[in-house]
Amino acid sequence: MPFSEEMITSFLQRYGEALSAGDVPTIVSSWQIPAFVLSDQEAHAVTEAAQVEQFFTEAVASYRAQGLVSTIPELLQVEPLGQQIASVDVRWSVRDPAGVPKATEHIRYILRLLEDGSLRVQVSLSLSI
Predict the structure, then answer these.
(1) Are 22 and 10 in contact (CB under 8 A)?
(2) At residue 83, does pLDDT exceed 60?
(3) pLDDT tier for residue 67 given thresholds of 50, 70 and 90
(4) Distance from C-alpha of 112 to C-alpha of 105, rounded to nearest angstrom
(5) Which end of the chain offers a freer environment for a tag, N or C, measured as fewer CB atoms within 10 Å?
(6) Does the pLDDT value for residue 89 go beyond 60?
(7) What topology does CATH give the domain 5-127?
(8) Segment 105-113 long-range contacts (CB within 8 Å, at least 24 positions apart)
(9) With the C-alpha atoms ordered 103, 64, 77, 53, is the resulting torsion angle positive or negative?
(10) What is the reported pLDDT for 1?
């Protein structure tokens, strides 16, 4: 099954809804382990789902403490890298309870297409551009 922009957009919307709701089990299930996280500040391998769970439990709590309650994805670019992987650039708009954007994050994901047709995050690269 080839990648489609609709499939990727749907995945990102579900992922954003899970982030907004603090639905950590759904967030964790959106990751393919092993995974890799890279940014200017860090680089680390994710070898257990518990690492994803701990990170996003803390991230959701931090966002809530700042009064941020929703995360909206904007798909910027899709580049197929093979039959089962694609590079996806996303701008996340982080918003307050009134829906006002308070922060943005630009992330490049490497998504993996599984045999059942579902997508998973395999690599997350924080971009500072």
Answers:
(1) no
(2) yes
(3) confident
(4) 21
(5) C
(6) yes
(7) Nuclear Transport Factor 2; Chain: A, (3.10.450)
(8) 106/76, 110/81, 110/85, 110/86, 111/3, 111/8, 111/11, 111/85, 111/86, 112/32, 112/84, 112/85, 113/1, 113/3, 113/83, 113/84, 113/85, 113/86
(9) positive
(10) 53
